[in-house]
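Field reference: sequence -> structure
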Amino acid sequence: MSVAQKIKQKLAALRFKRQGVKFEAGARFDRSVDVQNAQNATIGKASILYKNISLYIGAKGSFQIGAHSHIAPFGYLLIDKNNITMGDHVAIGPFCTFVCHSNHFEGDNEMFSKNYLDGDITIGNNVFMGAQCTVLPGTIIEDNVVVASNSVVKGILEANSVYGGSPAKKIKSLKNGE
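Structure field:
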């Protein structure tokens, strides 16, 4: 990283801190990250949010990512009044989308104007998610889970497992050391 890039990164960190983002030691945001209600975001030790990530946090929502984790470029997180919690050692691939608040169709109500689905998203420790995954409201991903690229995730993904597909289904269990 050049001196100019380091200076730009330091200035970006100061801007995010002034906005209220809580950074633990060694955590950082790329300067192109877009955050609404930054005071509701916490970035764990040595964690990174890479370029062009959008974090739309409502006034009552929150985003927290644990230590030694990252979100690759072009992530989209629509949190609104809900919460996204990611554990330690989480790796999120590029172009992943997390949706805590979404339009939903059910019953005879007007299709999109009155039907919404809300839910927190919780991701445990030691989780790897491939590129271009979509995680829907109410999802829980337990510890030691791998999610294949392009998967659509909803519900509970059990610990020590590999998932993939649309919708994501369990492919196999992981043994120690895999």
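Note: The radius of gyration is 17 Å.
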